[in-house]
User: Fold Dipeptide epimerase from Rhizobium gallicum bv. gallicum R602sp.
Amino acid sequence: MPRSLEIQMNSFPIAGTFTIARGAKTSADVITCILTENGRRGWGECVPYRRYGETMESVAAQIESARPLIEQGISGEELLSALPPGAARNAVDCAIWDLEAKLGGKSVAERIGLASAKPLTTAYTISLDEPEVMTAQARKYSARALLKVKVGTGDDESRIRAVRQAAPDSTIILDANEGWPEETLEHHLRIASEMNIALVEQPLPAGRDEMLAGIARPVLVCADESVHHTGDLASLRDRYDAINIKLDKTGGLTEAIVMKREAQRLGFQIMLGCMVGTSLAMAPAVLLAQDAEFVDLDGPLLLARDREGGLRYTASLVWPPETSLWG
Assistant:
């Protein structure tokens, strides 16, 4: 039977509100791509992101525009030139990987050279709020090995100090989401160093981050919004120490594998990150993250409900996906 494509729009409520420097959200709105062939089904999920000019409608339309090629059996490598990097290509690419694993009887882990996949320590995200609220959240989750703390205001010193005091034993990542003004950048980096912060993510706006090349960086600085695909890497070597690979930015696992390999060759440390989505979106990233220095795949933990048969999370760990979920 020929390959068929189904596009679904799904919404999963967030437990409470997820707040970053750019705003707040109360649901994870995702697009699910389902490919069917010979009675087997391959699944992929993406999260359209307004910061990158994406909407649910625009991403669904992008996938629809490639329907003839997808249903003709386009490969992941061929998809790289059929759709641009972004959420639409991610959903299709991951569905292709999943379908081909099920049709061929060889798991994605095997296909990408993993002898075995292990559980990984993942960050848990503390939303941006007033210092006292963030302190309470950090204290609540202080037993977790790795916390990712959303910052991104002109004066985050009190937040950084308060969270560190509330979670003295946790490794802490700060994510400014492009929100630190240039005039406070060096001050905030000094405070981060003083508070033994492991890494600061995207302190300055993408495209306006040249200042990072000309200052001392007392903590690791990681690119997120500044880096999308392999072609971005070379220009960032003088200003970042690490990069955040997200499949919704790269446009799927196929490009992400290439990007990770090149980033490691260039000397970057690797973070595997995510948008707020379900376990279906996290599953391929868990496999890619097996040797990453930082893992931030807590999307399902922020939801009021996940997909049925989702990933297993215990304490600070996320476990590799069962093939019944993906791969």
